[in-house]
Write a structure and sequence with these properties.
The chain is an all-alpha fold. The protein folds into two domains: 90 residues, NK-Lysin; 43 residues, no CATH class. It is 61% helix and 0% strand. The termini are far apart. It is flat, with a radius of gyration of 24 Å. It holds the Pfam family ARMET_C. Its main location: secreted. This is Mesencephalic astrocyte-derived neurotrophic factor homolog.
Length: 185
C-alpha cells in the first residue's frame, strides 16, 4: 500500500515536471521571414480565396513571381515551391492549413519547417543604428555593410578609413535622434 502511494507521488511529480518543462518560450525571430512573408501574402487574398486551397496555391505562385529577386522573401518562395525554378513543391503544405484557418506561426514553425528546415533558418539582417553605436567597436564587416547599404564605395583597407568615411557622410543618410540633439545643447 505504501509503495502504491510512492508510485502515485512519483507519477504526479513527473507529470508536473513534464508540464513545466514543455512551456519553453518561443523565440520571436525563429521563422520570422516565413511568418512575415506569409502574413503579407494573406493580406493580398480576398475572403473567398482564403478558404480555398487551390486558389491559395495559385495566388501564392503569382505573389512569388512578383517578389524581388535576391531577397529573403524570394528565397522563401524558392524553398516552398512558389517559383518555376524551385526544386521542391510544398505549396500544398502551406495552402491547405491556411484554408483551414491554422495560424501562420504554427504553419511556418511546425509544418513547413518539418519538410524543409531551411525555411526557418532565414532571418532578416538587423539594421545598425549609426547614431547609437560606437563605430570603433564594430567589425570591419559591419562597417562595410553600413556603407554598402548606403550605396557608397567600400574600397578601404583600414578600419579607421571606414569609420572616417561613415562619419563624413552619415548626416546624408541618417537623421539625428532626439538623444543626439540633447547632447548638442
Amino acid at each position: 500500500m505504501q509503495s502504491l502511494s510512492y508510485l502515485i507521488l512519483l507519477i504526479g511529480i513527473l507529470f508536473t515536471f513534464s508540464k513545466v518543462h514543455s512551456k519553453k518560450p518561443v523565440d520571436e525571430q525563429y521563422c520570422e521571414v516565413c511568418i512575415k512573408t506569409i502574413n503579407t501574402f494573406i493580406d493580398t487574398l480576398t475572403d473567398s480565396e482564403k478558404t480555398n486551397a487551390e486558389k491559395i496555391e495559385k495566388e501564392f505562385k503569382k505573389f512569388c513571381s512578383k517578389v524581388k529577386i535576391d531577397t529573403k522573401e524570394h528565397r522563401l518562395c524558392y524553398y516552398i515551391g512558389g517559383l518555376e525554378t524551385s526544386a521542391t513543391y510544398a505549396v500544398g503544405d502551406l495552402a491547405k492549413p491556411l484554408s483551414w484557418g491554422i495560424p501562420v506561426e504554427k504553419i511556418c514553425r511546425e509544418r513547413l519547417s518539418k519538410t524543409n528546415p531551411q525555411i526557418c533558418d532565414l532571418k532578416y539582417e538587423k539594421q545598425i543604428d549609426v547614431n547609437s553605436v560606437d563605430l570603433h567597436k564594430l567589425k570591419v564587416k559591419d562597417l562595410k555593410k553600413i556603407l554598402s547599404d548606403w550605396g557608397e564605395s567600400v574600397d578601404f583597407i583600414e578600419k579607421s578609413e571606414f569609420i572616417k568615411r561613415i562619419n563624413e557622410i552619415k548626416d546624408k543618410y541618417v537623421k539625428p535622434t532626439a538623444d543626439a540633439n540633447k547632447k548638442d545643447l
